[in-house]
Amino acid sequence: MRLRRIIRTAAVIIFLTFVLLLNAPPLKSRAPTGVNVILVTVDSLRADHMGCYGYHKMTTPNIDAIAEKGALFRRAYSQSAWTFPGLMSILTSLQPPVHQVDQRGRTLDPNIKTIFDCFREAGYAVPNICFLLTLPEFSTIRVGPVEEKYFHGGDGEEIFHWLDENRESKFFLWYHYREVHLPYKPKEGSRSMYFPILPADSELSPGIKAVLSETAVAPVGTVKFEEADMPIIKGLYDAEVREFDSFFARLYARLQKYGLLKKTLIVVTADHGEELMDHGFVGHASTMHSATLYDEVMRIPLIMSWSDYLPPCEIREQIQQVDIMPTILEIVGIPVPSGVQGRSLAPMIFDTRKRNESSVPVFAETIYGGFQADEEMAKTRLRCVRTDAWKLIETDTPEAKTFQLFDLLTDPKEIRNVFDENTQTSAALRTLLLEWRRENMARKGAIVDAGGTVPRGDSFPACPQMLFPYDGVVLRYQERNGTIRASWVGSPNSSYVIEYDIGQGVHHLSGSFVTFGNERIFGPYSREIWSALAARNPWRIRVSPDTNPRCWSEWVQLEFEHENGRTH
Ligand SMILES: [Zn+2]
């Protein structure tokens, strides 16, 4: 009897211990408080060209060393195919159709909480030393003014200068490294490590000239890449990756010198990958003036390292950019805001039992042309859903939708489209993609409903900036089919006031009207009306958010071309 009671008591104790262990906070008890965070995003960095991801050349010895001691996510994916939407998904944990910074000229809705807000509210220094934060599209992110005094001594030095002066503070520091992006022009020393002899300029093929071109774009259709270009292109690219690794080594050494390694979580990832002739071309949406969502563009590295506090681990579930913000916040003990679309990966890092469960699907969306998209390109969108075994890509043009389906287990390079042969899988993934779109629409609606246009925080609003028409433009009927699309850097979900000041003398007219969103299309007009508009030249317009007080863009002056080609 007594023995049975002892056994029962022991069983209860074991059970309770087990329950307590399961519910124990995974990290807080072990982690020192007030950990710093350095988030380094690298433009166009492919995971499979890094040593820690199994690349056969030594391109990243310094990153490999921290990856070995920290958490390495073997299958991490971008939410898009170009810089802005990918980075915004990292910084907000929202999918591109929800944060909507997926087209040039669009700013983040000020009601959306970013990772910067979370850290600032937790008492962290959140320095503005990333050049991207000076771009209009990032202007509604709440950080302090640009800390210009750190920008000297060359590109990338600002992060070292900032650390030199602020190492005592508790900080969240974001840095975007851009040099891996086209053009692939590494320094001689690093290039010669990966491709010893570069042909003379006169012997360079059009493909090599394209990747060396300072324009940093190689639109599809303008250049043909040859098989013989591939080793040179990969050599140049690898040399750029090595240069990033050297930059990282300097950063790591700085942290070591200041004794910050034990209290700094380091996160290295990318905005998107890069095609290196995997499907016949080089680049990504912004440089191609087109877009693909194959794995070479979607797959990115994700490495997290924090001295002894993160266990060395390799995680094989597929994960995505929206997961990064909740993971960082949970690791450092800051509450994750409600409404994020990602999940924290901290349980996978700290609890081996939470690893290797089946992956959740990954989604991505991009416009043709990315950063370089004109009105026409932006009408085409690619969307994709990726599971462990399959990938469905939808190309949505104004004319039609087409689909590609790839069997990733037998065709990991995504060469053979098997959409028509696998009707059940195709249908199931189309439904998944549709549900994702519906969910995003609902979330977007919720943000708009919660919002209005009242700015929050100290650095918003930045006054809008006209994208088109630009100052001095002459609007020709023939070129525009009688239509004018005015656009400015602003929110697609806010109201704006357009003010106009037209003509001279007796023809002078001025006024204003309210419009919704950051663009407005006028026309199409007949030739007669175009001429009538030209009779009132010059036109001046400016735009402001519909707030009080107003915050005006600069005036832009434009003219309509008369039917006979005159402007005056
Ligand atoms: Zn990029």
Q: What does the model show?
A:
With 568 residues, the chain is an alpha+beta fold. The protein has helices at residues 2-23, 61-69, 83-92, 96-99, 115-121, 157-166, 188-194, 206-212, 230-257, 285-288, 295-298, 324-332, 346-350, 423-451, 477-480, 527-534; strands at residues 36-42, 71-77, 172-177, 264-270, 275-276, 282-283, 299-300, 302-305, 313-320, 362-367, 381-386, 390-396, 401-407, 465-468, 474-475, 484-489, 495-502, 509-516, 519-522, 539-545, 556-560. It folds into 2 domains: 36-357, Alkaline Phosphatase, subunit A (3-Layer(aba) Sandwich), CATH 3.40.720.10; 465-560, Immunoglobulin-like. It contains 16 helices and 21 strands. The strands form 5 sheets. Strands 1, 2, 3, 4, 7, 8 and 9 form a 7-stranded mixed beta sheet that branches. Helix 7 crosses helix 9 (230-257). The N and C termini lie far apart (109 Å). The site of zinc ion has 7 residues, from loops.
